[in-house]
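I'd like us to work through together how a protein chain folds, taking it slowly. We need material for that, and I hope you will provide a protein of your own picking. Go ahead whenever you are ready, and we will take it from there:
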Amino acid sequence: MPLAIRQLQKHFVGEVSGLDLRKPLTKEQAQEVEAAMDKYAVLVFHGQDITDEQQMAFALNFGEREEARGGTVVKQADYRLTTGLNDVSNLGKDGKVLARDSRAALFNLGNWLWHSDSSFRPIPAKFSLLSARVVNPKGGNTEFADMRAAYDALDDETKAEIENMICEHSLMYSRGSLGFLDYTDEEKEMFKPVLQRLVRTHPVHGRKSLYLSSHAGAIKGMSVPEGRLLLRDLNEHATQPEFVYVHKWKLHDLVMWDNRQTMHRVRRYDQSQPRDMRRATVAGTAPTVAQEAAE
């Protein structure tokens, strides 16, 4: 069965059929999927009952694995997953649901904010691939926003104003906005702000997109209040329903998205029940701006 794609939202998102992700991709199939990612920015694969190893093997068709360190307050010795996948569940190492007031659970609430994966890293992530192993019975949808369409809809004056703006991104800002302020000295060092362009250009098709994230807490050359207000205005614009796709998870769905062209967030769910989601993250290859020490 050849690969087929059906567009799910006005601007982006493709539903893929004709691929069994338990099997290795041919070179031609991998090229088809990557071309589809360039076009649709989000791809949905249903009915993919895969292992961690199969998920990682699929991800590695599109680049190198991103190192997980630096994106969590969970110590490596306490990781539930040891396969190289990012744990985006509400489960502890013992497989049980985390206590709602546990440090890990409170930190993970930052995923409920609009963000782009790893924008807090000097070289941010390329693709993310999220597999649903246990679906929460209540809530837990993931929303995606097309940042290319959002950029296109800006007026010319705003496009000119923001074209060369540089933002500071940090996990301490996104979590701090929810009141999570307790960090060790090691974590403060690990979560130091990095610089990212506010407008990105895709390396293949050349479309521009807004590069926004809850991790963005300042704009270089602007006062903090003024910069945050501009970022808030742009976020409100970019997450209007016109630009958003809501994915309602089914067991064994795999959703793949381009962090260079989208933002996403998970919605509220019943935290007393398990939600086992596992993410493979494909590393980016270049910074968005030449890095210097962020003040």
